[in-house]
Structure formats: structure tokens, C-alpha cells
Amino acid sequence: MTAAQKVIFPSASEPLIEITREGPLFIMTMVDNENRFTTEMCKAICDSLDHIQETVDKEELTEAAVVTRGQDKFYSNGLHMEKALVVPGFTEDIFMPMLNKILLFGIPTIACINGHAFAGGCLMAMAHDYRVMRSDRGFMCMNEIDLPAPLPAGMSALLRYKMHPHVYRSVVLEARRFSGKDALVNNLVDAVAEGVEGTFEQAKQVALKIAPKAKSGSIYGLIKEEMFPEISTRLLANASKL
After folding, report:
1. What is the pLDDT of residue 242?
2. Cα–Cα distance between 134 and 203 in angstroms, integer?
3. Backbone dihedral region of 87: left (phi > 0), alpha (psi from -120 to 50 degrees) or beta?
4. What is the distance between the alpha carbons of residues 63 and 210, in angstroms, rounded to a whole number?
5. How far apart are the first and last CA of the chain?
6. d(CA 111, CA 203)
7. DSSP state for residue 216 in the 8-state scheme
8. Alpha-carbon distance 83 to 91, whole Å?
9. Who has the most CB within 10 Å: 1, 32, 96, 145?
10. Radius of gyration for the alpha carbons in the chain, expressed in angstroms and rounded
């Protein structure tokens, strides 16, 4: 895969994820409007990550990082309830394993939060190693308490380990909406920038800074496994053992 190539998952006729290269950076762009999670979207994300890992291994890259982003005003607006919840075991067998794959991915990951990251979108962003958020538009939020709906143990563990206790309380018990500036103050993100393009440029700067750590090869992923054993165990606890 050269810098000029674009790889599309699941296919060019039904695009959900587009992958492009910028130097050592792999840019994963979700291109399904609000980027709600369905079986197809989750599979496209996992297949995209597998493709990136295979490319890094094949080319023996010593610098690499993944930047995920949405388009316009949405990073991801969460689960597509009508499509996702009619699939038996969607949460346990499809969505949470996808989060785990991002969480433990063996290459640095940066979420470029260009717009709203609600519910599942917030969880996906928090599964990344680093986060950069747009400062002038968009919110991060977990709204289960207002639906109302329970928060599965794996999702709760991801948020609990990635957030300070008082922030976690506000997120899950109050459904507080965090703007980019609020998210930065509360350590939910590592940097903010203005506008879609400004946020993308800032995310790439963060990614370029951490990309050399990919030279450690499998060690990067192994260290993350040791960082987050409880999150991973809980995310996969109820997955089918097929």
C-alpha cells in the first residue's frame, strides 16, 4: 500500500472505512454519515486494523500510527439500534470485541474526534491510546442513564479505567456532555483544535510524535495487554467461544 493508494472496507461499492497513508500514518476515515455501529461497520473496522497490521509487518515499518476520524459533524453517533440490536449477541460478540481490538492494537492509535462522539462513539474514542477533539463543535457523552439502559461490565470497565473517578461519575450517572475544551480540562482528550481540518492536523502531529514507538514491534501490544487486563477480560467475558 503506497501513499497514493486508498483501501476501502468492506468494498468500493459499499464503503464504510477508507484507509489512506501519509508517511508513517494510516488514516482510517469512517464514511457512513453518522457512523453508527452495525455488524458491517464493526467488521469493517476490524478488517481495516488487520490490514494495517499486515502492512506494517510486511513492510517492516519502524514508525507507524493509526488515526481514526469521521466526517463533518460526527465522529460516531453510537450504535445503530434498529440494525444492531436485532442481531443476537451483537454487543457481546461484535461490538465489545471490536473495542478490545482497538484497545490492545499493537500500533499507536489516535482518535481524531472531529464531531459528536456519543455512546458507542465515546467508547470507541476512549479505547484509543490518544485522543484529539474539535474545540468549536461536538460533544462526548454516554447517555445510557437517560434512555434508560444498563451499561455492560466491559463498557463500564473501559470508561472507569480511562477516566478520573469524578469524571466517570458525571459521564455514567449524569450523562454529562463534554465539549472539546471541557474534555481537555477533565483529561478525556490529550489536545484540542478548532475546525475539522485543524483537529485532523493536530491529531496527525500527536500521531507523528508517538509513531516511532511502533519500532518495538509486538512489544507495544504486549505492554498494552499488561496495562488493561481487567478491561480486556470484561469486554470479552460474554463473547461466544466459537
Report:
1. 46
2. 10
3. beta
4. 9
5. 32
6. 7
7. G
8. 12
9. 96
10. 17
C-alpha cell at 209: 510524535
Q: What is the mean pLDDT of each run of 10 residues along the chain (242 residues)?
A: 78 97 98 96 98 96 97 95 91 97 98 97 98 96 91 96 97 97 98 97 98 92 96 94 54
CA distance 193 to 134: 5
Does the global pTM surpass 0.90? yes
The residue type of 84 is A
For the chain, which domains are there? 7-235 (3.90.226.10)
Per the listing, cell 460533544 goes with 139
CA angle 184, 216, 224 (to 5 degrees): 50
Ranges assigned E (strand) in 45-190: 65-69, 74-76, 109-113, 116-118, 130-134, 140-141
